[in-house]
Amino acid sequence: MALIKATIAAASMSALFHRSSRPFRVPVTLSPRRTLCMGSGCPHDVKYSASFLYPNRRPSFGLSVTDLTDSDWCEKQKEFSLVDRSRKTSAAMKTGDGGQEEVIKRYRIRSAEDSWAIKFTNSIIHANELLVHGLTRELTIVGFTEGAWIVGRIDEVRLLKMKSEYFLMIVEKKTRRRATLPTEPQRRKGRFQVMCYKKLMDISAEFPSEKFYDHLALNPEHILSPNIVKKTVKSGFPCETLRDLVECFRTTCSLLPPTHDKLLLRYELQGNLSLLLEKQFPYDPEWVTGKIKYHLEFLSGKREAACTPVEERWKCNFCRFSSKCPAYSDSPEQTGH
Fold first, then answer.
1. What's a Pfam family this protein contains (predicted)?
2. Is-above-0.85 flag for pTM?
3. Most exposed residue of 148, 263, 274, 298, measured as fewest CB within 10 angstroms of its CB?
């Protein structure tokens, strides 16, 4: 949920950070039948920016792990969520938007560079906390993989000592409203999410700084907002420019021990947080890389969105776009087969 908040907030900020004073309007081809426009005056004006779907544009915020896991759940649902202009905002999302607005005001964010600076600052702070205390939560990680910049926020990272070596254990906690075990598709989505985190962690020490600035059209010599500078000074790593902060991020990541090949998913009951299921599983680099590549084809506009498999179309019963989705009318629940 935290990543969804971050994605929505970042998308809404992209128009603010665009350097042109003229209305911003970019046609994005989603499929031969769908075109998404962004900006004032667009007939398909939407609340959710889908600029990252445009393969020839350099969005200043990249993708999130949530974009990938949402696509893995159902690409068609993801597509509908991007083009639907009547998207409903839940109370949780409203709280998230308010929190993002508070961050913007507190640090006086006026540019994409400052927005990235906040991510790097928080990442360094949490990484230092991990090294000192052996545990951190909400660790932001950024990486370039399979031709895309991806941001993730890891729920929990633990520092473990095994014999004479140290490792990082990545943990993802999921809460459920009812005391029921997750279905296999839900567990698969969770495994994909945690493996994405490990993949980003494993490449963090080799962060390609120049590619980062160029690919996202960022100014490395940008002077950070005064409040961000104060935050870095107070946290023990004084930085004045985005380049200073990125180099500090690279150095910090190089100090972290390697991540363990065993990953952990925990499912807890909402409210009292009692444990429903704890599942440890091995990292599968080929599996996660294949999934990332597959979904990036859709997210980059190279192919149409795929509907969820027939055997998993029970998901349609919980999708608010089911009434206009071609897969729903063909699902076993609707045909009676």
1. Exo5
2. no
3. 274
